[in-house]
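Hi V.,

Quick status before I head out on leave. The structure for the redesign project is tokenized and pasted below; the design run finished overnight.
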């Protein structure tokens, strides 16, 4: 009887302890709020895939000089572009010598000598270029940014020349040792013989096709990331964010430190973190790597992108990633923001992050071929733009439009002016 009473008392003590623990955890003041916040956490869905910086570093165009004043242009992801660029990435360049740009007759070299010219838009740091090309370490120019690589052979020389142009504009570096023969250069150049001929315009600033350029007009199925997904990705605790409706119709979500602004009509978001802590000294390369890591962790890559460093090197570096469809870039316009990701960095930390919420689905796509104007017809259309500001570049691109059934990509000529404006010709 005594043992049975002891067992019953022990059981009552255990049950009482469990009841007390329940009240301590779930019924203390404030515990309801905590439980609610935990339940409001959003389960993270798979968003865009991650990518490596090496896959984002490639020329925006490849100019092929065939001698006798003949030229053509290859664009990213096209067959000959990929073949030539893959081969060049496997060749080594070393022993660099610094030269003045003014000491070379570039028009003569361009028109008379077979060569391949790779252009990198606003430039790329040599330290990153070494990740995709076999450039031997060289203290002479490893801190430079390169916006053009020109490989050519001259009849009077026994070896190929490889020139790396600094974004400073007045300096070019020539590799003293190049793992390319004159025959290699000629073989690469020969790929352009049966391609669309281009004529140099504006003293070499841009190239104009002599025959119409075929492009695909596409109607694409799309979807979009939700605000809940972006909140989960960008805020430490999405459950404590406040919602603010702006007069212009945009929506703002903030945790009092960071803010996420969404324009629903354009499916465009802008994230700001003004209190990003300083990380000490930074370099252009570190900023770029930090930007790639940030996108990998916060939304991923919803398509094919190329690095564009239009604002790098300033106190607050702006890094842009340009989206491509096939071989051509998708333009970001005032009426419809799409086609780019933009990040501002301060000392290696992202303070602003802008991107579209839209991504292309792998479902049904409607395509049809279109021809862009060329020759004298195109030259006449360019005349009006040249009066506004000198033309510094001309390239095929896609003009995006959000339509009822999805996303429409219309082929256009993008005309870049010296004042920074982009005009389009259909």
């Amino acid at each position: 009887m005594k043992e049975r009473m002891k067992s019953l008392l022990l059981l009552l003590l255990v049950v009482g302890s469990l009841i007390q623990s329940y009240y301590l955890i779930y019924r203390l003041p404030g515990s309801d709020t905590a439980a609610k916040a935990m339940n409001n956490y959003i389960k993270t869905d798979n968003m865009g895939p991650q990518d490596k910086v090496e896959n984002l570093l490639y020329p925006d165009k490849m100019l092929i000089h065939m001698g006798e004043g003949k030229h053509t242009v290859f664009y990213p992801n096209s067959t000959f572009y990929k073949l030539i660029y893959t081969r060049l990435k496997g060749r080594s360049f070393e022993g660099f010598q610094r030269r003045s740009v003014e000491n070379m007759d570039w028009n003569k070299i361009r028109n008379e000598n077979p060569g391949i010219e790779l252009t990198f838009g606003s430039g790329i740091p040599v330290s990153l270029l070494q990740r995709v090309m076999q450039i031997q370490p060289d203290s002479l120019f490893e801190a430079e940014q390169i916006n053009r690589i020109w490989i050519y052979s001259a009849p009077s020389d026994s070896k190929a020349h490889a020139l790396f142009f600094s974004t400073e504009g007045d300096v070019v570096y020539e590799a003293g040792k190049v793992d390319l023969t004159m025959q290699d250069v000629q073989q690469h150049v020969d790929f352009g013989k049966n391609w669309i001929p281009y004529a140099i315009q504006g003293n070499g600033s841009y190239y104009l096709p002599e025959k119409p350029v075929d492009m695909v007009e596409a109607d694409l199925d799309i979807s979009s990331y939700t605000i809940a997904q972006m909140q989960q990705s960008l805020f430490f605790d999405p459950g404590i964010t406040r919602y603010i409706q702006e007069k212009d119709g945009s929506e703002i979500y903030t945790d009092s430190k960071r803010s996420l602004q969404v324009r629903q009509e354009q499916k465009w978001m802008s994230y700001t973190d003004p209190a990003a802590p300083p990380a000490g000294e930074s370099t252009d390369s570190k900023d770029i790597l930090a930007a790639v890591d940030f996108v990998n962790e916060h939304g991923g890559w919803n398509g094919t992108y190329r690095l564009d460093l239009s604002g790098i090197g300033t106190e607050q570096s702006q890094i842009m990633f340009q989206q491509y469809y096939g071989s051509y870039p998708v333009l970001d316009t005032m009426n419809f923001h799409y086609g780019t990701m933009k990040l501002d960095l301060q000392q290696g930390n992202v303070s602003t992050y802008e991107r579209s919420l839209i991504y292309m689905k792998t479902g049904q796509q409607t395509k049809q071929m279109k021809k862009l104007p060329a020759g004298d017809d195109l030259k006449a259309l360019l005349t009006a733009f040249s009066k506004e500001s000198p033309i510094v570049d001309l390239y095929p691109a896609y003009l995006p439009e959000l339509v009822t059934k999805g996303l429409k990509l219309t082929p256009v000529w993008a005309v870049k002016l010296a004042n920074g404006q982009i005009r389009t010709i259909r």
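Above is the designed sequence. The CA atoms of residues 15 and 295 lie 51 Å apart.

G. will cover questions while I'm gone.

Best,
W.
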